[in-house]
Amino acid sequence: MRDRTILDFLNESVEKYGDRPYLYEARKGTQYTSLTYTQVQEQSMQFAAGLITLGIEAGDRVALISEGKNNWVIGELGILHAGAISVPLSVKLQTEQDLSFRINHSGCVAVLASDQQIAKLRPIKELFNTVKYYILLDPEDQPEKDEWLFESVMEKGRKLMNTDPSALKERMDTVKADSLANISYTSGTTANPKGIMLTHGNYVCNAEQAVDHLRGLPSYYRTLLILPWDHSFGHTAGIYTFMKCGASIASVAMGKSPMEILRNVPKSLKIINPHLLMSVPALAVNFRKNIETEIEKKGKFTSALFRRALKTAYAYNKEGYNKGGRGRWMLAIYDKLIFSKIRKSFASNMDYFIGGGALLDIELQRFFYAIGIPMYQGYGLSEATPIISANSQHEHKLGSSGKPMPRMDIRIVDDNLQAVPTGEKGEIIIRGGNVMKGYWKNPQATAETIVDGWLRTGDMGYIDADGYLYVLGRTKSLLISDDGEKFSPEGIEESIVSTSPFIDQCVLYNNQSPYTTALIVPNAAELKKVKADPEQAALLIEKALNEYRSGGKHDGLFPHRWIPSGFAVIEEPFSEQNGLVNSTMKIVKHKVYETYASRIASLYTPEGKQAASAENLEALRKI
């Protein structure tokens, strides 16, 4: 199959599904309207021509920061038709440093922004060294001197296409499969996020891998794309995978604030009635809570019946691939009495969820499997565009991350990158057309991450005898929250050690957990100087950590969600002797996590989270 671009991808879909709806949007209230594949292509090309008239050149970078809406997709496709490169930014970015680093590092010449996002950018425009134009995605917004309305750019494009139809075609002809489509910035310390370079070929490859793995999506399928649209999971699995199949995506009904948009999610679900949803664990937990709350409102009898039905379903379904045995007929009765009603009230069309962004708790998977809307866990990495493996309707094993994508090589390797036997754990590495081109302006990080064509994921895992991948945690030092957001902890760890005389070593932990915790090696000599008893010592360490919270002297240095809410005192320093520090004197995080797994687990209990917990006091007595 010849190498193709996203432009080819869209054109093929227009030829097959031109009159089918691709995008659904509700601009005012919850009244949805749609655009067909043909309309999306036409508007994207008009916008691309408009960008050319503004002076956007092939290879220029254009930032895109907005909540999900039609003009997000049309804007990105327009950028790509103009031969430029999209730089999607998270709407969660708030600080001047977060925004200015990404826009300046990528050298963006223009920014596409929604009304809520341009409000953040206007006061700090002088920080953006290379930006010449701001394009407002929402027609209600009033442009300032250097700002253009989206429709005004499209009007300029229509005029160019009438007077010089070859201008856009010539620009589109410069786009090749190896051309950059996207620079997607990682999370991490605000000073050092990395720009992941993804090509047109990467997106085409990964979308087709996903479709083949799922054995296709019917063209009548609709999804409500709840995830942030810059999120690599929603970006590929939503925008481009659905494009491949002629299916439809809808944005959440618009609101004047993030909270109003969030409140519109249940309304949008009812109206769009999607056939599948993409979810991260935090969303899945909320969905479950809402379902259980509604059940409880119906009284004790219904609640008891629901719990009994779940117990029967769990026993029968097992891990999905091995379901069967006693309880089939009883389960059919429970389904008719209660589960079918839940499905109807949630979204009657729903066939299944695809879960990604972070690992889903197996009990959560059992719950959704029981009610008849399975949540199939997947695994990915932005550097892999991002889908690496997934469970599906046809092949699934609850608790696993599914089988690897087709036309992609995967290995589990040891520290020397040598393959380990089936069932043994090691680092997950992959090779294929979905692997990124590298990191923007960061050849050293690229060389460390792509070795002999293999992408080092930095994740530990194993593949079982049936070919299912199990992801165990990160070998890299990235923290990852329960909603899939990632952050590099080194800056926080170094700051804590350097600012507190009572802390010698610090390792932060968050692996899809509700809060961040820390393993602390105290400085025994300093604690002796102040003659602290074990309880006083624990409180001194707690005070040092609290200096990074609201009102503390270091408040604002780092996002609060990554500051540890609990800590475990470790009596033995991490060292080369105990194998927890390598030859370059770096702490080997995954080995620390394995060694102190029980202490970490205790930090997620009410008793263990206390600074003066029994375990901490015992460790401090020994020190």
Describe the structure.
There is one protein chain. With 623 residues, the protein is α/β, with parallel strands linked by helices. Among the domains are: 6-270, Rossmann fold (3-Layer(aba) Sandwich); 489-622, ANL, C-terminal domain (GMP Synthetase, Chain A, domain 3). The protein contains 22 helices and 28 strands. A 5-stranded parallel beta sheet has the order 4-3-5-6-7. Strands 12-13-14-15-16 form a 5-stranded mixed beta sheet. α13 crosses α14 and α13 crosses α15 (362-370). The chain is globular, with a radius of gyration of 26 Å. It starts with 5 loop residues before the first helix and ends with a helix. The mean pLDDT is 93.
Give the SSE map.
Layout lengths: L5 H12 L3 E5 L7 E4 H18 L6 E5 L4 H12 L3 E4 L7 H11 L1 E6 L1 H7 L11 E4 L10 E3 H14 L2 H8 L6 E6 L9 E5 H14 L8 E3 L7 H14 L2 E3 L7 H6 L1 H8 L3 E4 L1 H17 L2 H18 L10 H20 L4 E4 L6 H9 L4 E6 L6 E4 L12 E2 L3 E6 L12 E7 L5 E2 L3 H7 E2 L2 E10 L5 E6 L4 E3 L4 E2 L2 H10 L3 E7 L1 E3 L3 E6 L1 H6 L4 H13 L19 E4 L19 H7 L1 H6 L11 H9 L1
Parallel strand pairs: 1-11, 3-4, 3-5, 5-6, 6-7, 10-11, 12-13, 13-14, 23-26, 27-28
Antiparallel strand pairs: 1-2, 8-9, 9-19, 14-15, 15-16, 17-18, 18-21, 20-21, 21-22, 23-24, 25-27
